[in-house]
Amino acid sequence: MFDTHAHLNLEPLGKEPPEEIVRRAKEQGVTKIINIGIDIASSQQSVALAAQIPEVYAAVGIHPQEAGSAYNDAQIFRELERLLGQKKVVALGEVGLDYYRNPVAPSVQKQVLEWQLRLALENDKPLIVHNRDADEDVYAILKYYKCAKVVFHCYGRDREFTRKLLDLGWLVSFTGNITFPKNRQGQDAVIYTPLDSIMIETDCPFMAPVPHRGQTNEPAFVRLVAEKIAELKGVDWEQVEQATDANARQFFAIGRD
């Protein structure tokens, strides 16, 4: 299994030796972890950790909540471009738009996102997208730039929006919140989306699935996401594991060991 979206450097996970986190994940069948950057410092840490641990790969990027600090900062943009060229950096992310209680103005978020999209296209990197309360704007920008390899992480939108993403060949990734009983829309998105368009993630240390809700999330728990998808779709969880593994390998261009 892949955990396609983890934040191993963020507290409280960041206080623990990453080797221990990876060991527990491997015991649950997790073979690859994509460690995600949200700003320059965490992106640098992701690259360093990927160089240190064979099972870990890196994504680098500026999260929309961090866009204000990167706005019109040429030094940050140059460093991000340098990081994209490092070994085991498999995607740009997480990037996107967040209109939910975000003090960064939408216009600033959009400019930082567009700069990163151009960078991803120039370097042939797939995109890991954060979208919160910004469906139409983020969709329009990604479509305008003709982005081909896109995954919307921590997904849970309605069928109409999901269809728009699937029609462009984009993927969605589900996390532990699909195990929350009241998350009907997220569960319906699982049912609606075909397995060949799905990846799985933890978004750790956040979004711990039931029965660990409220605790610190970690990559070992991604199996619970796969099992919930299997339950909602009425298939064996091994089928979900195989499909999401194949999707992740193709999306991130990671071969088998």
UniProtKB/TrEMBL annotation:
Keyword presence, Mitochondrion: no
Keyword ATP-binding: no
A GO CC term assigned to this protein in UniProt: cytosol
Superkingdom of source: Bacteria
Membrane-spanning residues: none
Keywords: Hydrolase, Metal-binding
Residues that coordinate or bind a divalent metal cation 1: 5, 7, 94, 203
CDD domains per UniProt: TatD_DNAse
Protein name listed in UniProt: Hydrolase TatD
Organism of provenance: Candidatus Termititenax persephonae
